[in-house]
Specification:
Layout (H helix, E strand, L loop, with lengths): L2 H9 L3 H22 L3 H18 L9 H18 L10 H14 L3 H5 L3 H9 L3 H12 L4 H8 L3 H24 L5
Helix pairs in contact: 1-2, 2-3, 2-4, 3-4, 5-7, 7-10, 8-10, 9-10
């Protein structure tokens, strides 16, 4: 069954199609939720809320758009809604993030060798040390490819604040990662 058939089935409240959609995008969307949540349990709550929003909003899905991109936007917005509510301090809790995004992190802090020669778990811890504001802007800019204007609109901050938070996140990541590479790892 292709995506269009799955969407049509979901619009008819076909539980099998809803499960297919969920199963097809579960791991990708969970990875997004993990970047903004405080725990795997909370990420799953956000994920379920996001899928509920997706099912309810499928009537607005444009078949010419990417279903994955459409779902990604819903998940990110659901995560941001949780952040706005001030539920928790958000941080990344999965090494899947480091596995999938090491290259992007290296590019944004302008040091491929530094990032590529550090354990993925250490990269994860360095990102976790960022403040929620820096971490959120970093995730939106680097991982979700949002512009500073989009981030500013989404988080209700100025573009200058978005740029500043990204700059500070990059500085802190570089500092934390450089510190890690100067100390030999205990193995």
């Amino acid at each position: 069954m292709n995506e269009i058939e799955i969407v049509k089935g979901c619009l008819k409240n076909d539980r099998a199609c809803q499960k297919l959609l969920y199963d097809l995008y579960y791991s990708t969307m969970l990875g997004i939720c993990l970047r903004y949540s405080n725990s795997e349990e909370e990420a799953n709550d956000i994920l379920h809320d996001g899928f509920l929003k997706a099912y309810l909003g499928l009537k607005n899905f444009n078949n010419s758009a990417s279903l994955e991109g459409w779902l990604r936007k819903i998940m990110v917005n659901t995560c941001i809604d949780y952040l706005r509510k001030g539920k928790q301090n958000y941080h990344i809790v999965s090494t899947v993030y480091a596995d999938e995004n090491t290259k992007e992190i290296a590019e944004v802090i302008d040091d491929d060798e530094l990032v590529l020669n550090i354990e993925k778990e250490d990269i994860l811890r360095a990102v976790q040390k960022l403040t929620p504001a820096y971490r959120t802007v970093f995730n939106l800019y680097v991982m979700e490819d949002y512009s500073h204007k989009q981030i500013a609109d989404l988080l209700e901050i100025s573009e200058g604040t978005s740029k500043s938070n990204l700059s500070k996140a990059k500085f802190n990541l570089r500092k934390n990662l450089t510190h890690l590479i100067q100390k030999p790892h205990d193995k």
